[in-house]
Design goal:
Blueprint: H1 18-28, E1 32-34, E2 41-43, H2 45-64, E3 68-69, E4 75-77, H3 78-81, H4 85-91, E5 96-101, E6 104-112, H5 117-127, E7 136-145, E8 159-169, H6 172-192, E9 199-202, E10 214-221, E11 227-237, H7 239-244, E12 247-249, E13 255-257, E14 259-266, H8 268-277, E15 294-298, H9 304-321, E16 326-328, H10 336-345, E17 350-354, H11 356-361, E18 363-368, E19 374-378, H12 382-407, E20 409-411, H13 415-424, E21 428-433, H14 437-447, E22 450-454, E23 474-479
Length: about 475
């Protein structure tokens, strides 16, 4: 990230420059800002509140399935990181190193965690000795550092926030069950809370996590036609257990290595909802993760502080008592019209307007952020109407995003079609794949598209791989991605 102008007054249209629109919205809505250090963002309160709501919902889903939170060190000794060869090779270009302690050189370099498998597995080796100690189901909420060359707020930054789960199991079957269970939690969370339709599937070996046996992910399609990997769940097999000597005595009193998993999502999800739902006016935040689900704007005419404002306060109290996150904009420094635009830009799902005439008619006005439609609601039924409208907006956002994905998922039976779509239309492309890494690499080199997921449905017997023309072994989704 580089230094931009101090304050964004106009938001670039999405159709003109999607990348600039994205950054304009983040800065204008005060979600995040550039820090003095290149590639590192400051998450401002409004942006962090969105992350806190995401974190709260996910944390509850993890705990409901038996997982517990812990915290592990930020620093990882180099000798630990290098124990799993494939793992360290995969992360080597992104690792930030600490070489000095005060004014003294360190005897051994410390990595600032790019991920925590190494340090956590070293502790599991101490804690696990018997089948009675299993499964170990631990998650941590933390920050990580990966020295990225190209950064973009929330989507890819040198430091970011995430959760990372790390589990150990007695059998390969239990580890695989855990991997898929978490994948389903991520899918459910993305679709039901973020209104973000995702496709879940397994990655190719070229795209999997360094050190994993298999990597599963959820993929979302953004409005500019690029795919976004929104979460990953890794079956680590016994790779890290062998590297860190995580062994246990099984029920037959035989020593064997544990079976591991790791999984995570990050603040990248904030970027996903900005892109997936926003428009030229700014943000549209799904109600279930909106810091303010409703904003009340009193119409400031005449002696409104004595007449309208008390009624607006009563509305706030009633909605708050019903568990709705609500903000009353009682500022007298701005006009109602200015406030309407401001809260639309900040993506509040629902606006409640109330003025002298509404009080006379015993009604309130509800304005839907998605389409700006107004509804005149009897004052007595206001709470139920607001609750219904919020659920309607949540569902409509998901339906709109799903419709976009379906309209922008195409089939390609040959290389020319695949290349043309990637160059001129983008989106997701369904195609057969022979299973060869060479074909995968060739298509990536020529089209900049990667295999996002391997689909469960087998290819038609006549389907051929666009890379080589041979029979397809799998059906996959190609896309350019973030």
């Amino acid at each position: 990230m580089s230094k931009k102008e101090d304050f964004i007054t106009q938001i670039t249209k999405r159709s003109e420059d999607f990348s600039r629109w994205y950054v304009d919205v983040i800065r204008r809505a005060e979600l995040a800002d550039y820090s003095p250090m290149k590639g590192v963002m400051v998450i401002r309160p409004y942006g962090y509140e969105i992350w806190e709501l995401m974190k709260g919902h996910l944390d509850g889903m993890f705990k409901a399935t038996g997982h517990r939170n812990a915290y592990f060190p930020l620093f990882i000794p180099e000798s630990f990181l290098t124990k799993e060869a494939e793992h360290v090779e995969g992360f080597a270009p992104e690792v930030a190193w600490v070489t000095m302690g005060g004014s003294e050189p360190l005897e051994e370099r410390y990595a600032i965690r790019p991920t925590s498998e190494a340090i956590i597995c070293s502790m599991y080796a101490r804690w696990i000795s018997s089948w009675r100690d299993l499964p170990v189901l631990i998650n941590q909420w933390a920050n990580v550092v990966r020295w990225e060359k190209v950064t973009r707020p929330f989507l890819r930054t040198t430091e970011f926030l995430w959760q990372e789960g790390h589990t150990v199991h007695a059998t390969a079957e239990e580890a695989q069950e855990e991997t898929l269970k978490i994948l389903d939690i991520y899918r459910t969370f993305a679709e039901e809370y973020l209104a973000l339709p995702v496709i879940a599937g397994v990655k190719t070996d070229a795209e999997k996590f360094a050190g994993a046996v298999r990597t599963y992910c959820i993929e979302a399609l953004m409005p500019d036609g690029r795919a976004l990997q929104a979460g990953t769940s890794h079956n680590l097999g016994q790779n890290f257990s062998k590297a860190f000597n995580i062994r246990f005595e099984n029920r037959d009193q035989e020593l064997e290595f544990g079976w591991g998993t790791s999984w995570g999502v990050s603040t990248r999800l904030v970027g996903a909802i900005i892109m997936a739902h926003g428009d030229d006016s700014g943000l549209i935040i799904p109600p279930r993760v909106a810091p303010h689900q409703v904003v009340i704007v009193p119409i400031s005419r005449g002696n409104w502080k004595e007449t309208v404002l008390p009624e607006a306060q009563r509305l706030k109290d009633e909605l708050q008592a019903a568990g709705i996150r609500i903000h009353l904009d009682d500022r007298d420094t701005n006009t109602p019209g200015w406030k309407f635009s401001e809260w639309e830009m900040r993506g509040v799902p629902l606006r409640v307007e109330i003025g002298p005439k509404d009080i006379e008619k015993e009604q309130v006005v509800l304005v839907n952020r998605m389409n700006r439609e107004k509804a005149f609601i009897p004052r007595a039924g206001m709470v139920a109407a607001v609750q219904d409208k919020l659920e309607e907006i949540q569902s409509a956002l998901f339906a709109r995003a799903l419709k976009f994905r379906e309209e922008n998922t195409r089939d390609a039976e040959d290389f020319e079609t695949l290349a043309e779509i990637m160059e001129n239309q983008r989106g997701l492309v369904r195609a057969a794949w022979c299973g060869s890494p060479d074909c995968e690499a060739l298509i990536k080199e020529k089209t900049k598209a990667t295999i996002r997921v391997i689909l469960e449905d087998p290819p038609d017997e006549k389907a051929v791989c666009p890379g080589c023309g041979k029979a397809g072994a799998h059906m996959v989704l190609y896309a350019r991605s973030y």
